[in-house]
Specification:
DUF1254_sf, six-stranded antiparallel sheet, 2 domains, Immunoglobulin-like, DUF1254 domain-containing protein, DUF1254, 22 strands, alpha+beta, DUF1214, Jelly Rolls
């Protein structure tokens, strides 16, 4: 195989398989977790095929998964469904918004569990692509993943009040996931307030933990191809990549070329996909969105960019995401300036769940502020509307000079930042593009 050809196929393979290798490495890391607990003392982690739940909003210093939000109580775990099916518990949430994300190795959603689906309380089961067993009594429904590796992430809405933090606790204790062999056929409970703390994975820093290492990427890829069978029409891609790997195995100098290609592609392409302006499609007022979140198909570019910038996105009917990191003139949003985001009367995000506007620093994580405030939206009952019924959110590094505006102030870091609007259980006006976020206007 000529080196030039290996470089071309190698670069494509790196972008195409980056999300799958990311998931493979996360699963391997979670396989070392001895029991449900908190990585770095803040991020939920558990042995494979289990979860750990938080009991409040995620800590602002979490660095395991990028673009967290402080609107829901999270849980998280990695799946290895080749071992055995996993049972998940759904409490009776009443009219409280909730959604359970089950993602395969490509980060596609494969289960429908949440408020928008009218899911009944009870037990559900996640199975791998080759599972042929009988459904045990008491299981409401079975969801089949097309890959053996996956992730499971419950999200439960919580108002930003001490009262609601208490009200949600009995529900959180009933949110569990465990191997089928540990199922009793009845709901179990777990006190998540007493879980241990574990060291952060290697590579944790100001940004997200580095889950993909270019140096080992092509060493891991053969196993990844076994874990994730080809999508319809991908058989030729698998054939080309396997031929590349076979050639590199037989010729060490070719593997050295692939490692250089991996490093070049990581620095020259994958790193640029971290910017939201390079992700999804543009919509009005400088925002971008992903219309195919968690349902990528053969859109390998958006799949890779989402895995790099905000992995574990929900499918569109569960959540629509809008992001912005540039001003109207193309310059970067900066905390040294003042901005406003004004929703005209009657034009708040049309959702059946909730909405929020979240502030992220340059690395798509929270940066501490004195108010411990990182998003504003449905959860904040103190927001003040104008005389005309509009809602204006003030965005800046320093508090608004007018003290009356500080109730609606979203603190920004001193340097570069991005805004992220989530619309959970979006209405048809969002899904068909009739509603998009208002402009971010610089006022000083």
């Amino acid at each position: 195989m000529p080196e030039a050809y290996a470089r071309v196929i190698g670069q494509f393979a790196y972008v195409w398989a980056w999300p799958m290798v990311n998931m493979h490495n996360r699963r391997n890391r979670f396989d070392q977790v001895p029991e449900p607990g908190l990585l770095d003392g803040v991020a939920p982690a558990a042995p494979v095929n289990e979860i750990c739940m938080l009991t409040d909003y995620v800590d602002p210093m979490e660095r395991i998964v990028a673009t967290p939000n402080q609107d829901v109580v999270y849980g998280f775990g990695l799946l290895s469904l080749d071992r055995e099916p996993v049972v998940v518990q759904v409490p009776d949430f009443g009219d409280r918004f909730w959604v359970y994300q089950a993602a395969d190795q490509r980060t596609d959603g494969f289960a429908q569990l949440g408020s928008m689906y009218g899911t009944r309380p009870g037990l559900y089961m996640l199975v791998g692509p080759n599972w042929q067993g009988a459904t045990p009594p008491g299981i409401n429904a079975v969801f089949r993943s097309p890959t053996t590796v996956g992730a499971f992430a419950p999200r439960v809405f919580q108002d930003d009040t001490a009262e609601d933090r208490q009200r949600v606790q009995p529900l959180i204790r009933q949110i569990m996931a465990y191997p089928l062999s540990r199922s009793t056929g009845r709901m179990q409970t777990r006190d998540w307030t007493t879980v241990p703390r574990f060291p952060a994975p290697a590579g944790a820093s100001a940004g997200e933990t580095k889950w993909v290492d270019p140096e080992t990427f092509f060493d891991s890829l053969p196993k990844v191809l076994e874990e994730a069978p080809p999508l319809p029409g991908e058989e030729a891609i698998y054939g080309q990549v396997r031929a590349l790997l076979d050639a590199a195995k037989a010729k060490p100098e070719l593997m050295a070329v692939l490692k250089r290609v991996a490093a070049e592609t990581e620095d020259g392409l994958i790193s640029t996909l971290f910017n939201w302006r390079n992700q999804g499609i543009p919509v009005a007022n400088g925002w971008t969105t992903m219309v195919n979140a968690a349902a990528w198909g053969t859109d390998y570019l958006t799949r890779a960019s989402a895995a790099r910038a905000n992995i574990f996105s929900n499918v569109a009917v569960e959540t629509r995401y809008f992001a912005i990191d540039l001003e109207s003139d193309g310059s970067r949003l900066e905390g040294s300036h003042r901005y406003t985001v004004t929703f005209p009367a009657g034009q708040l995000p049309p959702v059946r769940g909730f909405w929020s506007l979240t502030m992220y620093g340059e690395t798509h994580f929270f940066e501490r502020n004195d108010l411990n405030r990182y998003s504003l939206g449905t959860k904040n009952h103190h927001l003040k509307t104008g005389p005309d019924g509009s809602l204006t959110i003030h965005v800046s590094g320093e508090p608004p000079e007018d003290a009356a505006q500080r109730t609606n102030w979203l603190p920004a870091p001193r340097g570069k930042f991005s805004l992220y609007l989530r619309a959970y259980w979006p209405g048809p006006e969002i899904l068909d593009g009739r509603w998009t976020p208002p402009p971010v206007r610089r006022t000083s």
